[in-house]
Amino acid sequence: MVEELELQTPYLRLSARAWGPPDGVPVLALHGWLDNAASFDPLASLLPGVRLVAVDLPGHGGSDHRPPGVHYHFVDFIPDMVAAADALGWDRFALLGHSMGGGIASFIAAILPERITRLAMIEGLGPPTSDPADGPANLRKAIDQMNGLAGKRLPIYPDVEGAIQARCEASGLSWRAAATLVERGLQPVSGGFGWRTDPRLRFVSPLYLSEPQILAYMEQIRAPALLLCGDAGYLIPRAYMQERYARIADLTVKILPGGHHPHLEDPEACAHWLAPFLVIS
């Protein structure tokens, strides 16, 4: 049975979904960019003995948006998720992250090695990076996007099916997988349905970390780590990921058939590796 939770942190109110016995192995699950906590719905029942709490990241799902005029920097999600674990009363816990959530999880594991028991990632390890020469243009564009937000027309769908179709076309997800995310990601608005997601999340990042900075975090990960990649996913084609893998002391990488959302499209294959990994003390 799934439980809906609200976590009040010093910064924001966060919504979450929880599965499993309260005395199960504590696992904090972090979804990907523009997804929400329902991302883990298909996987949760396949992880026996686990107390899985999936949080809607700020600006996603039912969680609070950041205050007006504030950007969504990658590093700002880290204290938010540490605060979520604190609100749950978890001193030591495992992490499970997909895509951007995997990047967030890897940084939490790097800065809080004494609290993280296991680090499991699906199609995500560290944040995206960019050419440093693009920094000034990115910052200018981010400011322009913020200033133009008030005049931006957000999409409205006449029905839920239209939103599911849009998500399928944007991400290549199956109808079933897209519907899982869309149900939690929509809200009724005048004229139909709109996304609950903060539109500022679509802005270009005003500041990217450099690859040497990211590698410094990878070197600080001490917990046993497991990374699941889709053979047609995001990570495999990116050669620079090999150096990130090499910097983590205890990392196992497994390649699964599929794309960027294997936990949604083929949860049994993911659970085959995740279930024994997460419950080992």
Salient structural properties:
Rossmann fold; alpha/beta; 281 residues
Please tell me the total number of domains: 1
How far is it from the N-terminal to the C-terminal residue, by CA? 24 Å
Number of helices: 10
Quaternary structure of the protein: single chain
The named CATH superfamily? Alpha/Beta hydrolase fold, catalytic domain
Rg result: 18 Å
Q: What is the topology, as strand order, of the major beta sheet?
A: 1-2-4-3-5-6-9-10
Structural class: alpha/beta
**Topology pattern, helix = H, strand = E:** EEEHEHEHEHHHEEHEHEHH
CATH architecture: 3-Layer(aba) Sandwich
CATH topology term = Rossmann fold
**What is the count of β-strands?**
10
* Uncertain parts: none
Mean pLDDT: 96
Gross morphology is globular
Helix content: 25-40%
Explain what you see:
It is built from ten helices and ten strands. It is of the alpha/beta class and 281 residues long. Helix 8 (241-247) links the parallel strand 9 (225-230) and strand 10. Helix 2 crosses helix 3 (100-111), helix 5 crosses helix 6 (175-185) and helix 7 (211-218) packs parallel to helix 8 (241-247). The chain is globular, with a radius of gyration of 18 Å.
